[in-house]
Amino acid sequence: MLEPxxxxxxIRIPGKARLTSTLxxxxxxxxLSLPTSVPAEAxxxxxxxxxxDGWGGLHPFGGFSLNTANRPWWPNxxxxxxxxxxxxxxxxxxxxxxxxxxxxxxxAPINTPVYWGPSxxxxxxxxxxxxDAGGQLDGRQGYLxxxxxxxxxWGGAPALxxxxxxQYIDKWRxxxxxxxxxxVPDGGWEMDQHGSVSAFGAAAAITIPGMxxxxxxQQLHAAGNGGFAVAKLGVVSIxxxxxxxxxxxxxxxxxxxxxxxxxxxxxxxxxxxxxxxSAAAMADxxxxxxxxxxxxxDGWGGLHPFGGFLLDAKGAPWWPGxxxxxxxxxxxxxxxxxxxxxxxxxxxxxAAPFITTPVFWQRxxxxxxxxxxxxDSDGLADGRQGYLxxxxxxxxxWGGAPALxxxxxxQxxxxxxxxxxxxxxxxVPDGGWExxxxxxVAxxxAAPPLTISGQPNAPVLQxxxxxxxxxxxxxxxxxxxxxxxxxxxxxxxxGDWGGWDIVRDVAIVNASNPQPTAQPSSAGAATRVAGxxxxxxxxxxxxxxxxxxxxxxxxxxxxxxxxxxxxxxxDWILAQMGADxxxxxxxxxxxxxxxxxxxxxxVGNVNGVEYNASGYGVYYPPIAxxxxxxxxxxxxxxxxxTPRDLYVEVAAGNTVVVWLPxxxxxxxxxxxxxxxxxxxxxxxxxxxxxxxxxGINAAAGTVTLNDPNHGVLRTVPIYQFEGxxxxxxxxxxxxx
Length: 736
Fold this sequence. Notes:
It is a single chain. The chain is mostly beta strands. The chain has three domains: 16-287; 292-527, Neuraminidase; 537-735, Cysteine proteinases (Cathepsin B, Chain A, Alpha-Beta Complex). Strands 33, 38, 39, 42, 43, 44 and 45 form a seven-stranded antiparallel beta sheet that branches. A five-stranded antiparallel beta sheet has the order 2-1-11-12-13, with no helix packed on it. A four-stranded mixed beta sheet has the order 35-36-40-41, with no helix packed on it. The two termini are 46 Å apart. Residues 1-44 have low confidence and may be disordered.
């Protein structure tokens, strides 16, 4: 656990530093005395300090008396960033996020050196370096820090060089200035949001121990023979010697992240005391400083943190009522991440950088997974490089990521669901693993083979993620299966949606819980997975009756699409297929000799009848095409299905359009052959029909079908169904 208060370490800063916000000047190197040409700030009886909130409110503590007249205040607008005060309490200045510096009390006005307003919140800290004859800060000179690390002097302050700069990366938060022996600024220190300090100019390097790996730091101030850093929630970390604040009267805002700066005045309390941080603020700070847990992605794009993980989901995409989100990647510190949609769009949220997707399939739900492989200087995913997986197994790199070879590819078959990347000893991607919907893992490139045991024996797998020592898979309904060693997530607060198949990904951060617990899956989710594995489930598919004599195939598909939330009329489906209205050539017995090709289009008149060959129907290819156009869903149509494969699909929550004779003719229907105009041999019966397979109960030996002929729900013995199904060579279209 981080100790956020008193870090006592033998750090000494050469020269002297001016305190950014308290304006306390102290000799911070042994034996150093201030030259008479630069008057020291007058000794002050004032003690304590002041807190700045994001609205601009100033809250003195420790007995500090501060003139706050005319101080700026932006109610309900978190735009205040830093504060500096005169040590005598006569006034001070507040910095806003646009670069405006606002005087209050009797402090002199400051003309800001740069202003980014009114829409770019990039100003982060400032230091007033000039003093009047009484040793009080007067605002004539100083420096302003922007989030990229740029330093902007004003009032003739000496130019400083060597400061860090990360263009377009808003990471720098705190600034302090170093003076030479004559009291002239000649360098300083910048602190980033993770507490890492970069010295520049003549300033010596310093390290603040115990800084978190998360972006929670806000300000840096020098004091005594050291200084202190201010984190979110107001938690102060002290370093060096001689810093002992007067904390009486200090208060925070519990879990509300609104505290932006703290300045200390004369922190020489002879009776040291710990900062009185509230329990709620400390709990929130520790959750931010030591990220753990994770987040669930639902199909609408919703993000649901668990395990105490604090996630900045601002700007995350959300598609209410539309199951199109497919995968999520999080920055380990909770500062943001990216969501993948089914068309290939990658959407940044929080502070995560923008990613230009390498490929986009407009209106085609075929993107399945992605991996961000590049890291910034803090070791966080930065989005510059990575890989996207499509359902056929194709891998699409972006940002100059190394080309990978050897990955599996199943043209026209949407089988692959999860992707993770293997790295060489130098941290360069050199292979990886793909997982299919059944949980089979294919290694490629330099990645070693990977076998994962204990997964559901059903086509329900969705994602694959590796972690140090192992990893985990994510199945439908949110079921997580871990593999390897040391994978122990923090599951507190995790929840699913029961039997509703809407969980699309689970991202886990810091899976090192010393007290391992099982994933708290609901009974509904567990039942669905067990049903998929044991072939015992019936989907609640709407039942309709076909509206025309011979549009049973369209009606069966319509029911399957309605189950997925897509309402396409039978006429719309028929329009996708077209029709061959030429009359059949029949012999004297009424048997068809020549007619159209139902593998290409609807054959005959949909309002006709089969017994006189005025109309017939259509087979799987046009129905599969219409399904794709009608719901942008994963579909696969073919002949030769093994019945058990269809039962598994149904038990996993999918629906299937199946071809068989009209009910009542399952045994008696005779199969014959005609020759299509294009020469194809067409196997047929003049009682051809299609139904929607919606349920399986292997233990009872039954299947359940929605029969569009008069809209009848039928539960029949498996052996009867399989006999009828075989007459059309086991023809079916699976709609996922």
